[in-house]
Amino acid sequence: MGRMVFLIVFYVCLQGLVLGVFEKDGEEGGLHLTEAAAGFDQTLSGKLSELLKISGPALKTGKSRIFYGIHKDFPCVAVVGLGKTSAGVCGSENWDTSKENIRQAVSAGCRLLQDLEVKHVEVDGCGDAQSAAEGAALGLFQNWLLNSYMIADSVGWQKGVVYAEGQNLARLLMEAPANHITPTAFANTIEEKLALHAERVTINKRSQAWIEEQQMGAFLSVSKGSEEPPVFLELHYNGSPDSKQAPLLLVGKGITFDSGGISLKPSPSMDAMRADMGGAATVCASIVTAAALKLPVNIIGLAPLCENMPSGKATKPGDVVMARNGKTIQVDNTDAEGRLVLADALCYGHSFNPRAIVNVATLTGAMDVALGSAATGVFTNSDWLWEQLHKASVVTGDRVWRMPLFQHYTRQVTDSQLADLNNIGKYSRSGGACTAAAFLREFVTAPHWAHLDIAGVMSNKDEVPYLRKGMSGRPTRTLVEFAAGLAHDD
Q1: Cytosol aminopeptidase domain: which residues (predicted)?
Q2: Among the options 84, 265, 391, 402, which is catalytic?
């Protein structure tokens, strides 16, 4: 009999509901139900409000409380704290606090239900359907059935789900074992994801022979130590085919595993280098998302994909290689390989006369030291481009922070004994993220270029409450929001 009761309770708890409550401004402990929560409370003749009053202290931002058996359709109801109704854009935090509060709170409620093995979750839009959907879908991550509850803004809800699915795609790619996501497997996965949008997307999976024809000596110098063949993935999303506007060019570092090459990394945490293709993952995922949203903008995505491995064929410290633009590079450290593959990709990307170039890479440990996981570091030669990226990041909460691109750093990489450039510069430990950006700048002639170093935001421990522990997929949503902004910016 006891077993039978357990099974019945388990069955009826397969469906749950997440509702939000705000803190009343100027009233200690006061709560204000969202429109959906108030409607739900009305169907219960005020029972929800009463339970909230007697069940403990007022719900603080991001905290949740669960009630069982109060509604026949929703045996499990999670109520989450959304913070103050007056919250908005915060200049000191560089994000919209209200949106972040909603993402964090809804995610907490969904994960609480998920931990109870609830399979179907309905979510209150909490006054911002897109943010609620992002929090729910990012928090649940996988294996969920998710719907909106009493939401008038179905467009915003669906947009938020698609944004989150894009970041989740990047997370899955970055988290996968390196023997599963090889350069070829990565390219095939993106091709499969874009198959639904074939009328708007052209995919070219360039072979090693093509890479050699393009004289991408810097890229080839990294790939030669591996048994896995390199792939140069080229994506064209034609969201506005009749537009005379030049395309946005996104370039992502695609090292599917980084051992460091001959300059071998220490073994502790080397397994995390399966995510060294995070730049390519976020760039490709953002194009998949743009296609799903049918954004009216043209985007070209480039992902030089390879492994960086030690072998008898691998590049040796001190070797000199030539990039596509004819510049020679002294490779003093084979673990500074990301800038080499990006150098050739940036040179090639200029041939499309892009409106703007944004490259994304897990490039330097120095970036993690500088900013940690708080924000993506941005190095750019364009105030306009910086403003567009910053504006997008305030909306998404996945922040960016501008870093210096001084000639001071350029002189450090151009002072080379054997070649035009040195891949680590004169002082390898000082300003490493800055000298890496200065190195990339030597392969850029476009007036609007930005380099995003995402090494610090590659993974998540507990810093972003609505992401689980593991690879983060950041800053996919910021890239999508940025592209969406360009679609409407003349």
Answers
A1: 333-340
A2: 265
